[in-house]
Amino acid sequence: MKYKLFFFFAFLFLSCQQVTSQDTLGTSTHRFQYACKYKRDSLKKGYNNDLFFLDRGNNISRFYSRIEYLKDSAKTAMLAAGENVYVIQEELRVYGYGKKYVIVKTPEEIVFSDLLVTSRFYYKEPTPDFQWSLKQDTCSILGYPCQKAVCQYGGRVWTAWFTTHIPISDGPYKFSGLPGLILKISDEDQFFIFELSGMEDCHVPLLQAYGHNYNKIDKKRYLQISYRVWTENFDPSGNVKSFRLTDAQGRDVTDVKIPYIPIELY
Amino acid sequence: MKKLILLSLIIIILPIMALAQQEYYYAFMTTCGRTAWVTTHHEMSAEEQLLYYDHYEHLYCELQVFDPDAP
């Protein structure tokens, strides 16, 4: 009986240790803030806006939406306080919409997680070899002299501006591998533009991109599900029995195709 | 005896079947006039409702955001 109890508590202790070690990967030293503009419809003028944090520690970084981070914190606090769902909905509206994905980068791999409607997914991939092509063009961003570099990734041609004055081989989204920090990057269609808007010394825990309630899938499957979610009113949770969408006049617009531009095509 | 077993099974199974057939109706009214009508087999938590609302609001209402610098 004593042995059984010992093994039970040992298992409990080790399980807790494992959860803790999965959750916190280190501590950041710097925080870089990137303004992001992205298009959802190539035929229309205008961008959606987001703001991202790149929290950088020793050989590890975490990239996530500041909007979503603040919104999630406010939501958690209001739910804990037992606030009415409609009141919370109204309160959260002022934050706007932040992308739900989180990217954790190490020299070996990238961990990408996302929330699609109510379902949480994550996938891992080896750190890509971006095969940057360095150019002679230069510019200045936030007072830092920058050099141009071009690569192809995810079916798009990306132009980056990096500075060796910040000798950190990192950047927004999944990008890294240059001899300095990427201060600006955009694709050739100008559908996605990330630009540094601020930086500070910052010591926060670097949390893993996923937790125990995330489903592991491969990248190809994630891209397929994501495409269906953003274009076909698809809900991957499987909880929805029926779905219908009506416009302001009450007409059924369920089958109207929704424009969507994925950041990665494959 | 058989009748008793059958009766007990019916008493157990019927509420389970009724529970499985239970439907919950939700209407997520977005700020741009579109309404998503959702039927589920389970009662959504407050957090789930907020996630659906956030998703639909972004999906249907934030397609065009004015930006003077837009190409």
Description of the molecule:
The complex is a heterodimer of chains A (266) and B (71). Chain A has 266 residues and is an alpha+beta fold. Chain A has a domain at 3-125 and 198-247. Helices cover 23% and strands 40% of the residues of chain A. In chain A, strands 1, 2, 3, 4, 5, 6, 7, 8, 9, 10, 11, 12 and 13 form a 13-stranded mixed beta sheet that branches. The model of chain A is unreliable at 5-22 (pLDDT under 50). In chain B, a hairpin with a 5-residue loop joins strand 1 (24-29) and strand 2. The longest helix of chain B has 20 residues, at 2-21. Chain B is of the alpha+beta class and 71 residues long. Chain B is rod-shaped and about 65 Å long. A two-stranded antiparallel sheet of chain B has the order 1-2. Chain A binds chain B through residues 37, 40-41, 44-49, 75, 79, 85, 88-89, 92-93, 97, 115, 117-118, 190, 230, 233, 239-248, 253, 258-259, and chain B through 23, 31-42, 46-55, 57-60, 62-67, 70-71.
Features of the shown structure:
heterodimer; A: 266 residues; 13-stranded mixed β-sheet; 23% helix; globular; B: 71 residues; alpha+beta; 2 helices; 51% helix
